[in-house]
Amino acid sequence: MNRSIATLLFLSLGILFVCEGGNPCCSQPCQNRGVCTAIDGNSYECDCTRTGFYGHNCTQPEFFTWIKMSLKPTPNTVHYLLTHYKGLWNIINSISFLRGQYHEISYVTHLHV
């Protein structure tokens, strides 16, 4: 037990020292699951492979990612449709995996209200 705590402490201190040394990746500039690699002391590069995004900080959506983001309704829209249209609710409620998805969306929506 003491060995694992010591290892964790060592890793934590190592990360602190790396970030204090001016590593540009410490500010986590890469978005959307991009991987940051420090180049020299002041610059960095983001690897956006298989993220669906591109650009210096992985913030520009690729075409199909943009379409998916544009067509996906917000949780509030889904909640409104399912609570105001009984027929749609009956269809969703009869299919178990869709019912679970809806309940999750509904829960998240109510948390943000």
Automatic annotation (TrEMBL):
Classification lineage: Eukaryota, Metazoa, Chordata, Craniata, Vertebrata
Name of the protein: EGF-like domain-containing protein
CDD domains reported in the protein's UniProt record: EGF_CA
Top-rank lineage group of the source organism: Eukaryota
Keyword set, alphabetical order: EGF-like domain, Signal
Domain EGF-like: 21-59
Signal peptide range in chain numbering: 1-21
